[in-house]
Amino acid sequence: MTARIGFDHYTIAHREFTAEATLDFARTHGFDGVQFLEPVQIVASLEPERLDAFRRRAEALGLYLEVGLPSPNPVRRARQLGSSVAPAEWARALEPAVEALATLGCRHGRVYVGDRHDRFRTDTPWDLQIAATVEVIRLLTPRLKDRGIRLAIETHQDLTVDELLGILDGLDPEIAGVTLDTGNLVTRLEEPIAAAQRLAPWVLGTHIKDAVLAFTDRGLCWQARPIGSGILPIPDILAAILRARPAVALSIELHPRTYDLPIYDPRWLAFFPDLKPAALAAVVRLAAECERRYAEGSLPRPAAVEAIPWASRDLDWLARSLGYLRSVVPTLIDSTSDPAAAPAAQASHTQAAPQ
Questions:
Q1: Tell me, what CATH number does 28's domain have?
Q2: Whole-model pTM over 0.90
Q3: Mind listing the pLDDT tens digit for each residue in 129-165?
Q4: Beta strands in 93-240, from DSSP E residues, in sequence order
Q5: Inter-residue contact 161 to 347 (CB < 8 Å)
Q6: Residue 179: strand pairing partners
Q7: Is residue 319 part of a domain?
Q8: Phi, psi for 2 (deg, rounded to 5)
């Protein structure tokens, strides 16, 4: 079996390609598919005939097509509108996007609960945002089941693994799954291999990226890196995913910017009430290894990388990431096909993962 390797459109969104030009870019640069944020990025009007034509174009090019949905978190939507939004209202508003996914031939749609700020907001606590999101998804479940679509909830810079598994345990397994973002795991203070093993049975989609960490006056900062050039144990993470979900597409997602992880601030840490000391120690250990490599000159520091405009490094990062995955993934597929080569990923919750 050969893994399909594509990219998330967000990586090159600044280039303002049309959706059709994005497919052509993927084909020209040797990718197997594209993941788009939402159907409106493809056809703003969601006109079925145009969506169907786009699906056929992707098929003709031999590309996989994955498309997400807007966040089902009604609190986020209310903040955008400046007025309250009831879960039932938001569930109804999402139905046209679900229909669009069906027309595009997608069997799952990537969603996220919050951005990197939502967890820390005090106007609506994070647990209430999660509860409202689950209510929206439950209300949307009949439509999702009717159209044969699952929601692949991302390990965005929001949910911990425990929280995500809790959400999944409260949803119909026929419509629930995970988009596993490899780089984001450490931003929620997760040990990445253990996190990937716990989530792997639920994975429907991916965002594959590497990352580095650095110590700051406030704790740590995080930065994405081309796959294979950061500090994350990418082969071990991918092995866990591919053992459980061998047919999953690997979608590269890369972007600029550093993100603050102020682990020295007890008020910030209080937003992680279930934080495990061993997991935090594992993240700090990764940061310490980064610092060692910065000092020896084998790894560029985040500030030096960010000094290069994103438009001057995006294509190089994509090419390097694709090359790394093309060389490494076949060896992982061979090893995961051998039951004695690696331990099977185990789920740590009660429901069976989607098949």
A1: 3.20.20.150
A2: yes
A3: 999 999 999 999 999 999 999 999 999 999 999 999 9
A4: 108-111, 150-154, 176-181, 203-207, 210-215, 220-225
A5: no
A6: 154, 205
A7: yes
A8: -110, 125
